[in-house]
């Protein structure tokens, strides 16, 4: 391309509309003519909820949204008013989406099955508000989702097996980050894309630099709740000590306590997030289906890794809906190192 042509193209791009979710999927669909538009439809609906949550998060200080409902959820955790609203909104959009046959939420004990129809092919797992204990103090939080093809017969209601599939079966996974800006990061198994919510037009748009995000192969950040160190297995202690003191690339600690925000920072900068098993709690804290598996899918698609210490997270087949698992996720070098310890 001549200099003149390059300048013309740059000028044209400057004047063209940014790529939004629909346009991005139209382009993706052109490469996959067999696609039905189902994922576009589900992601568009999920992003409608995220816009609403983003608005609530941004205006919480001037509305009566902070604080708790006084209830305790299935995980034994206090439910915030925003937890409840976010959960209800996700349920509402999924219920009316023609491609969704059922859903399961971190906030609910069991999954929900919709009446069967030939068109409904997918089930959705979601954590409506992750890291929500940070919300009252204006610290970043997120929502996480994973989409699977149902394995049960389309003529029947979905059943528990549909929700207990191996992470390898995810067709799409992602998160919304309500941070200094609101972002959607997702993968459908063909790279990782990061959209930013443009509040002036109310649309998620895709900057060129967030197409096919790659996590740096090596990182200098470790993220772990160091306050729990007395409950760690000695190997975890040794690993963290090593990261801090090694000669090449000694690591700094960065920990927000919101998985989405901690993972997102490490995705862009390189590093490792660890939520290990603990003495008396070998399964750790994070939920396999609605937290670890979607994050692991994104990490792998970005060139990183995710393990529970012994197994690849995506290979784990959950035995129960709210099963927890240890997780180590991030840059390849740091995650591989963990498995050596
Ligand atoms: P939540 O879904 O109930 O908000 O809990 C999950 C959160 C994660 O976002 C975060 O990584 C972790 O809990 C932090 O836990 P801790 O406070 O024990 O460090
Ligand atoms: Mg969560």
Q: What would you note in describing this structure?
A:
The protein is of the alpha+beta class and 341 residues long. The chain folds into 2 domains: 3-210, 2-Layer Sandwich (Fructose-1,6-Bisphosphatase, Chain A, domain 1); 221-340, D-Maltodextrin-Binding Protein, domain 2 (3-Layer(aba) Sandwich), CATH 3.40.190. Helices cover 33% and strands 23% of the residues. α3 runs antiparallel to α4. The longest helix has 22 residues, at 38-59. The termini are far apart. It binds 2,5-anhydro-1,6-di-O-phosphono-D-mannitol and magnesium ion. 2,5-anhydro-1,6-di-O-phosphono-D-mannitol is lined by residues 77, 106, 127, 130-132, 225, 257-259, 285.
Q: Give the strand tally.
A: 16
Mean pLDDT: 91
CATH class of the largest domain: Alpha Beta
Q: What letter string, H or E per element, gives the SSE order?
A: HEHHEEHEEEEHEEEEEHEHEHEEH
How many structural domains? 2
- Overall helicity: 25-40%
So, CATH architecture of the largest domain?
2-Layer Sandwich
**Outline type:** globular
How far is it from the N-terminal to the C-terminal residue, by CA? 51 Å
The percentage of residues in β strands lies in: 15-25%
Largest sheet: 9 strands, mixed
């Amino acid at each position: 391309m001549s200099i003149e042509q390059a300048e013309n193209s740059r000028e044209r791009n400057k004047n063209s509309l940014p790529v939004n979710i629909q346009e991005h999927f139209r382009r993706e669909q052109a490469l996959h003519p067999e696609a039905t538009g189902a994922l576009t439809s589900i992601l568009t609906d999920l992003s409608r909820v995220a816009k609403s949550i983003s608005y609530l998060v941004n205006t919480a200080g001037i509305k009566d949204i902070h604080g708790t409902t006084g209830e305790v959820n299935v995980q034994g955790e206090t439910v915030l008013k925003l937890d409840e609203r976010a959960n209800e909104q996700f349920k509402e959009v999924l219920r009316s989406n023609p491609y969704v046959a059922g859903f399961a939420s971190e906030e609910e004990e069991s999954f929900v099955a919709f009446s069967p129809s030939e068109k409904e092919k997918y089930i959705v797992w979601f954590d409506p508000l992750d890291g929500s204990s940070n919300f009252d103090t204006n610290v970043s939080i997120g929502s996480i989702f994973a989409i699977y093809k149902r394995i049960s017969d389309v003529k029947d209601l979905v059943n528990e097996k549909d929700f207990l599939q191996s992470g390898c079966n995810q067709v799409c996974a992602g998160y919304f980050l309500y941070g200094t800006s609101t972002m959607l990061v997702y993968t459908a198994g063909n790279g990782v894309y990061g959209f930013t919510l443009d509040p002036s037009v109310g649309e998620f748009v895709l900057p060129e630099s967030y197409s096919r995000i790659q996590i740096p192969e090596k990182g200098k950040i470790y993220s772990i709740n160091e306050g729990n160190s007395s409950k760690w297995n000695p190997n975890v202690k040794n690993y963290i000590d090593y990261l801090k003191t090694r000669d090449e690339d000694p690591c700094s600690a960065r920990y927000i306590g919101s998985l989405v925000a901690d993972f997102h920072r490490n995705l862009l900068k390189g590093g490792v997030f660890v939520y290990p098993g603990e003495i008396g709690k070998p399964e750790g804290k994070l939920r396999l289906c609605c937290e670890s598996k979607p994050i692991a899918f994104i990490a792998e698609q970005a060139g990183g890794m995710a393990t529970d210490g012994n197994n690849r997270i995506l290979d784990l087949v959950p035995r129960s809906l709210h099963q927890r698992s240890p997780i180590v996720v991030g840059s390849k070098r740091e995650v591989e190192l963990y498995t050596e310890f």
